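Weekend entry, working from home. Most of the wet-lab plans are on hold until the incubator is repaired, so I used the time to fold the two sequences that have been sitting in the queue since the last round of cloning. Logging both here for the record. First:
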Amino acid sequence: MKALEFALQQYDIPETIDVVTTHKNACEIVIFDKSVCYKTYNHNKTNLFSRIKKYITTIKIGKYSFPCASLELALLESLHNPSAMHATLIYEYAKKILRKYKKALKREHIDAIVNGNKHHV
């Protein structure tokens, strides 16, 4: 969801941020009510991170650079697995993204992500 917020130029710190990793499934409290949820994507004991890492971009905020899901990957991920608490917000973000970036979205990336990861369907 944070990748969608970056695309909409919203840089506030969320209560929870999701991080896809190759090896860790856990949720950790970082400070006060802020937490990081690490998750892996596996299918038939195969880690799918290598399939999606080519859709990761780098976002620079000040002097720091952060890996971030591409707009296409962020959109699919957010819509596929919305938390009950954020579902309405995610749908609003998705509508804004589709309106704002309808010509810039790379549909071939969306096709490749969906076709290469059919376990999500």
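Second, folded right after the first finished:
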Amino acid sequence: MATKKYQVTITGKDTLQHKFNGQEESKAIKKLSDKEQAEYSAYINEQGHICIPSKWLRGCLLEYYYDNGPSKGKMKAKKHAASRIRFTPALNDTGLDTWEIDKQSIPDPKKASRDWCVRARIPEWTITTTLTTSLDKTMKELHRDLTNAGEDIGVGSARIHGYGRFQIDDMKEIE
């Protein structure tokens, strides 16, 4: 099976970031201002730009393959694709250095109550990433799969509520 690389340009909307900071650190972060909490929730590179993690794109595509696999082979379809898909770099720079603050009430199952969740919200973003794959799929099929994954699943937090949807603007094979 030949490995192929594609340069993919993606535009997304209404994406909520929620980087895991560890349980103890998260407790300390809750005591900060909303602006500081949102900053801690964001993936920010050395240039101060907000980024879209490649693991989100990979996870989105794998979830799409799982959801659309045969009824008795969903996990097999996901596992088959898992070792054959990689997006690079690890953090995809949006070029944005500002974001909005999203504050929503969420259930806290440990306390049987609700709590505030503060996150960075990116109204619109564009990235260019590299997809390396050995899946036996044409570029047209991969483009369709990524498009459907972006429409149906998305990236980031609160995807079940429609956040983090994206579209494929351009895709081309590279060396």
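Plan for Monday: verify the second prediction. The first strand starts at residue 4 and ends at 17.
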